Amino acid sequence: MSLLSQHIQAKKAALRRLATKPMSTLLSALVVAIALTLPALGYVLADNASRLAQGISGRPEISVFMDVNAAESDARDLERKLHSDPGIAAIRFIPKAQALKELASEAGLGNVTATLGENPLPDALIITPRDDSPAEFLRLKEGVSRFPGVAHVQLDTEWVQRLDALLRLARSAVGALAALLGTALVIVTFNTIRLQILTQRHEIGVSLLLGATRPWVRRPFLWFGLLQGALGGVIAWGLLQLILIALRGPATRLADSYGIPLEIAGPGLLQVLGLVALAAALGWLGAALSVRRHLKDGVATD
Amino acid sequence: MIRFEQVSKRYPGGVESLADISFEIRQGELIVLRGHSGAGKSTLLKLIPALERPTAGRVLVNDQDVGRLPRSAIPYLRRSLGLVTQDSRLLYDRSVLDNVLMPLVITGLSGKEAKKRAHVALDRVGLSGYERAMPITLSGGEQQRVAIARAIVNRPAILIADEPTAHLDAEYADEIAALFRSFNEAGVTVIVATHSESLFAARAPRRLSLSHGRLVA
Question: What is A75-121 written as a DSSP string?
């Protein structure tokens, strides 16, 4: 009998065991699914946030804010000087009056700005460097800061970098959560298989008496763990889709209120297959550990 | 075919079950192993399929020292033997046919050929027509006959039975004894352990008697 036919036979036996107790199978698969859904949801949300940050950051720029008391001619003078820098692709001058106008119209603060006695905003220059490298940004920032009348130089990528760092932190947290819940999944399968071995103790003993090899006895349990894990993975994908459908509307409305275009994307085909494969692998691992532990301790007749 | 050479078996805790046992069983023999309860019959029979390993000496089956077999080879030794235990060890959630098919499934035989062999085995023990019955619905004697059908379905050259009639009344016990005789007449080497003096009393060509772990006759 070939190894392949032995595995087919073991898989059929495992499927029979799964089908014999549908409620128990469903409950175990649900436990697996819930353990997988939480980190999978975290991963999908972090992925969406990351893509959103990339989408709205655009080309990195440097904002140069002049002193509020500086004359417009100082800013114009600085603009002329910077044009000679080969590292700069474009410079846009924003007079303080225009900045106040934009603030009133775009941010919806018209009522607030109308009550101001004088314009508190400075003149500003928006510089687009040719090179996006952090070193070039730093060079330009330091160079521009030395000009007289310059109050503050801000890299517009800073908030994106902060968001990126935040997302990295979130991804690490999701990773830690996935590791914890993955371990829980292995333990759940370990215990399910332990109970199966106990209930089938007599059958295992008879099989060994009749000449079954240990791999022959182990295989159906390994397949059981693998199939239960895979079933849990499929259910986890379904749960994830339901949660994303529920989140999509409120998240889009929230983003719209900030003027940010947002559409939450679900996991792709490869990610879904990865989720199911990971669940199957963890189920197999739990089963393998259980079989190794419990078939060694007295169930076998030899 | 089977040779015991100065075999001793001591269980953990110091209980000596067998002491310095030597004998040989030739192909085609019918051996009746007698002795009171606790004499060491079961231990002796367990050494042949390597369910236990001797503490000293050698147990040879077809010139193979079963006490030194690697663990991975033991299943193949057991497949070449037919084993019947006193409590039948049937699977009560499976039909009679499924129970008899089990050794064939383990060896990878399935489908029509396997079913044909199972039907022949059931026919040999007089249980044709019981294929779909569940073991729990059968009498003790019938259950033991299912266990015997399961033991012979792989066509073993050696049949080992440990107290196969222990829980049966005299009528059923004689039926089982007759079955073992018929297998032996067909060329199978049969070793039966029993504490009964009357069973196999007539026409048993060879007896081995154990007392307190020692061979006395």
Answer: HHHHHHHHHT-TTEEEEEEE-HHHHHHHHHHHSS-HHHHHT-SS--P
What is the Cα A121 distance to its own chain's centre?
A: 39
Are B142 and B162 in contact by the 8 Å Cβ rule? The answer is no
* Full set of structural domains in chain A with CATH: 3-56+161-298 (no CATH), 61-156 (3.30.70.3040)
- CA gap A44, B125 in Å, rounded: 65
For chain A (302 residues), the mean pLDDT of every run of 10, in chain order, is: 80 85 87 90 85 66 88 88 89 87 70 74 89 79 88 77 80 90 90 89 92 91 94 94 91 80 83 93 94 68 37
| Centroid of chain to Cα A212 | 46
| Rounded Cα gap, residues B44 and B214, in angstroms | 10
Coil, strand or helix at B126: coil
> Would you call A209 and B79 a contact, using CB atoms and an 8 Å cutoff?
no
Interface confidence, given as ipTM, is 0.90
Which residues of B fall within a CB distance of 8 Å from A211?
75-79, 103, 106-107, 154
